Amino acid sequence: AARVSLRCPFSPLPAAAARFVSGVGREPGSDESSDATAVLRHLARKLRATGAVTVAEYMREALTNPGQGYYTRRGGVGESGDFITSPEISQVFGELIGIWYISEWIATGKPKAFQLVELGPGRGTLADDILRVFNQLSSLLSKCDVSVHLVEVSPKLSEIQASMLTGGKVQSNPEDSSAYMEGISKSGIPIFWYRDIQDVPLGYSFYLAHEFFDALPIHKFQRTERGWREVLVDIDPDVPDQLRFVLSPSSTPATENFIQPEERRDHVEVCPEAGVIIQRLACRIEKDGGAALVADYGHDGTKTDTFRGFRNHKLHDVLKNPGTADLTADVDFSYLRKMAQGRTATLGPIKQREFLKNMGIDLRMQVLLQNSRDTATHKQLLHSYDMLMNPEKMGDCFNFFALLPHHRLAHPDKKQKPESKSPIPPVAGFGELLLK
């Protein structure tokens, strides 16, 4: 669970501007394997040929380069990887998210079918916990046609997910199919894998993005005396195998398009890909119904430099040995809200500890503690609760944010339907859940 203190640093990182002057790269004498520097060699050739690239382009190469990208090659989630996520810490996390979707399904009149669509499902732990809840509530869902749709670019991770969710009972689909793989969950629910959100069939859907948006490529901008300049990555002319941050000599297309006129900060990170995905989700929810739940660490338009790397549960220089470390940046929820463009209602962000408390984590933990037979399990339960809820661990740096159809939150017009006396149920997690 070491990732918590890292991806969610307790002390602020140094300002980005201070890092522009220091070249960083492979340390002399480091015994990195040759493939560890393959992305660096590829980037060096590219930079010499075309000049400096945006931070977004650098992240794309380092994380998803088809041959040597971090996610395509390794994707280190879990104890043995580079970071640990909430579902890896406690089953309760995924169970409560499963209950959130069920409560939304009930609140919208129990539609006859729903798709659970997870973006970047990691090892499949979260989906597995949610499916266990669906299975436990199978009598409630008996008349509902449930299917699971996973959006995953990593071949390695999709194998791990298939093994966890289906016991390995999957089949590859022909190249012209929208889903590249499909199988049946251990409880009999069909599961499909896609490379892009656009390949997922339309229809009433619940979307889940847990620690997904933080890994999407960001553009970085610095305010200067001559106006906004984009932060770029370039080769250090004095040390050929090292990379460094530089400022664009003039404004770039991204500077013109992504900086809001009312911006007050001196350093800004913008993730256009996140904006595009939120727009797609908002359009789908507006048209077909459903909801999207986003859980990530982030801020509401207040932070500046949050770009950082993780390797072996330690902070890792973002420009050192690209392809061997996880690169991440805090999610700007104010930007996500803006990009929904009013097509849906938005709720949050609220702190993870508030959301889980509202979802009844304390009650669930009491039951688990009462049922735990041995001291070790008891201790582990208390430890995982502390990791999820402690404000200095995950409790305050992770946030929940939701997209819902406007009618889900609108009060019925009494004049048109005087007989409709039932108030709209509150959205679980974002307000106190009243347990009857």
Structural commentary:
- With 436 residues, the protein is α+β, with helices and mostly antiparallel strands.
- The protein has a domain at 52-218 and 271-406: Rossmann fold (3-Layer(aba) Sandwich).
- It contains 18 helices and 19 strands.
- The strands form three sheets. Strands 3, 4, 5, 6, 7, 8, 13, 17, 18 and 19 form a ten-stranded mixed beta sheet that branches.
- β6 and β7 (190-194) form a beta hairpin.
- The longest helix has 17 residues, at 91-107.
Helix-strand layout with pairing:
Blueprint: H1 4-7, H2 16-19, E1 24-25, H3 38-50, E2 53-54, H4 55-64, H5 70-73, H6 86-89, H7 91-107, E3 113-119, H8 125-136, H9 138-141, E4 145-151, H10 155-166, E5 170-172, E6 181-184, E7 190-194, E8 205-210, E9 219-224, E10 227-236, E11 239-247, H11 253-258, E12 267-270, H12 272-288, E13 290-299, E14 308-311, E15 314-316, E16 326-328, E17 331-332, H13 333-339, E18 345-351, H14 352-358, H15 361-371, H16 375-389, H17 391-395, E19 398-404, H18 406-409
Parallel strand pairs: 3-4, 3-8, 4-7, 8-13, 13-17
Antiparallel strand pairs: 1-11, 2-10, 5-6, 6-7, 9-10, 9-12, 10-11, 13-19, 14-15, 14-16, 18-19
